[in-house]
Amino acid sequence: MAAASDLPEGTIQNVLEQESLKWVFVGGKGGVGKTTCSSILSILLSRVRSSVLIISTDPAHNLSDAFQQKFTKTPTLVNGFTNLYAMEVDPTVEHEDMSGSDGMDNLFSDLANAIPGIDEAMSFAEMLKLVQTMDYSVIVFDTAPTGHTLRLLQFPSTLEKGLAKVMSLKNKFGGLMTQMTSLFGVGDEFGEDAILGKLEGMKDVIEQVNQQFKDPDLTTFVCVCIPEFLSLYETERLVQELTKFEIDTHNIIINQVLYDEEGTESKLLKARMRMQQKYLDQFYMLYDDFNITKLPLLPEEVTGVDALKAFSCHFLTPYQPSTSKGTVEELEQRVLTLRQQLKDAETEQERLRKGKQKV
Ligand SMILES: Nc1ncnc2c1ncn2[C@@H]1O[C@H](COP(=O)(O)OP(=O)(O)O)[C@@H](O)[C@H]1O
Ligand SMILES: [Mg+2]
């Protein structure tokens, strides 16, 4: 058997080529490079798709940092692009959007407390409803750290439970809820039927979206990690949970990999490289049916569109460490130029073919 390190290197090209994809989730532990990777993925997708939206659902928003541009909860065109939009949403609910008075606020927070995750579920559903009407070719999610993301994917069952709870409350207390709401001075539009209606409406959206999330033609989850024990462990947990929820995943990006390009003498670096190699081998062994993309740890942060674009080459061609740095960069540039030439030739061919058909 070949050593793990001899196996052919993967890239993220498969995601760019899968034209049917509508939802691309990017997730993993905090600080591993989710925002960097999802931003680059959205830039690369914008080259092959008509329109791309990147959404951050991580409360610690940093799309604004990555692109060095302020984003809000409405999609904004990213500077320097014509078809790439970004938005940052807060996964915690805004109660004032759904209630009309203090009385209803109490009722809602009671409901929210009774069913953990229901408030998030509702605001996520609202967001998905909005995004679905906007007709983007593909939507990339820069998700929050693992636990949080998995909760988002459990929403249909959370809502199901919410509905059951409201129904049982309704049956149990009969008209009491209606009396309560009228006591608080709120009309029918905020009564229990309205809540029920709202929950049911959300359930439709969530069910529809959930069906799409479970369709590997439409949805995939890209796991980002680093070659360390905790990250390997979290990735395994993530992959297992995704399998449980029937959500496709077949890409792992291993970020912050150290390469000994200058034949380092540093004991610390050498030790860390050995440690990384141990976990890299384990990743390749555990996920031999995945596309594994390795990204080098850079001396500097990856912020701003230029830095993101420069780093994006490692998503397309496997990183080739070399003792001579100049040569690698030259080679990469040559590959990129060749790729562009090939693309231009294809476009030209397509144009000619279409022209011919018309004649
Ligand atoms: N391969 C890398 N080399 C150097 N810096 C990196 C690399 N990947 C990410 N970074 C930097 O590390 C920080 C955390 O990355 P980020 O993508 O925000 O992680 P996450 O979204 O998972 O919390 C950012 O400042 C980013 O620029
Ligand atoms: Mg982030």
UniProtKB/TrEMBL annotation:
Coiled coil regions, renumbered to chain: 328-355
Does Cytoplasm show up as a keyword for this record? yes
Sorted alphabetically, the keyword list is: ATP-binding, Coiled coil, Cytoplasm, Endoplasmic reticulum, Hydrolase, Nucleotide-binding, Transport
Where it sits in the cell: the answer is: Cytoplasm; Endoplasmic reticulum
Tell me yes or no: is DNA repair among this UniProt entry's keywords. Answer: no
Q: What Gene Ontology terms describe what this protein does at the molecular function level?
A: ATP binding; ATP hydrolysis activity
List GO terms (cellular component aspect): GET complex
Q: Which GO terms describe its biological process?
A: tail-anchored membrane protein insertion into ER membrane
The record's section on InterPro entries has: ArsA/GET3_ATPase-like, ATPase_ArsA/GET3, ATPase_ArsA/GET3_euk, P-loop_NTPase
Query: Which ranges carry the ArsA/GET3 Anion-transporting ATPase-like domain?
Result: 22-313
Residues annotated for ATP binding in this entry: 29-36, 228, 255
Main subcellular localization, coarse class? cytoplasm
Active-site residue list: 58
Q: Which family does it belong to?
A: Belongs to the arsA ATPase family.
Outline what the protein does: ATPase required for the post-translational delivery of tail-anchored (TA) proteins to the endoplasmic reticulum. Recognizes and selectively binds the transmembrane domain of TA proteins in the cytosol. This complex then targets to the endoplasmic reticulum by membrane-bound receptors, where the tail-anchored protein is released for insertion. This process is regulated by ATP binding and hydrolysis. ATP binding drives the homodimer towards the closed dimer state, facilitating recognition of newly synthesized TA membrane proteins. ATP hydrolysis is required for insertion.
Assembly and interaction partners: Homodimer.
What is the name of this protein? ArsA/GET3 Anion-transporting ATPase-like domain-containing protein
Q: Which organism is it from?
A: Malus domestica
